[in-house]
Amino acid sequence: xxxxxxxxxxxxxxxxxxxxxxxxxxxxxxxxxxxxxxxxxxxxxxxxxxxxxxxxxxxxxxxxxxxxxxxxxxxxxxxxxxxxxxxxxxxxxxxxxxxxxxxxxxxxxxxxxxxxx
Length: 117
Description:
Layout (H helix, E strand, L loop, with lengths): L3 E4 L2 E4 L4 E7 L5 E7 L6 E6 L6 E3 L7 E6 L4 E6 L8 E8 L9 E2 L3 E6 L1
């Protein structure tokens, strides 16, 4: 069982930045970020391959968010710039031992991101 621990959430004004971190208890091939806003379904935000050479973003965050990873620390990051109130959500880290999984097997507990207007 892979344990994931997120950190870095908080309250920020629109236009500001935050960086989320997620530390995994062991190596995983795929890591990603999802988010869930109140009253909405959880949605994909970004994903990254083991090498970091392959990344994927939702259209709503492309150009503003950057996903990266440090394999020596089994940690994935999400740098969020130009934040908007609609980015307010609980952000979840996800990981899987497979490459490009359809569904991730391991999830963190979530970290709240609130963007004020």
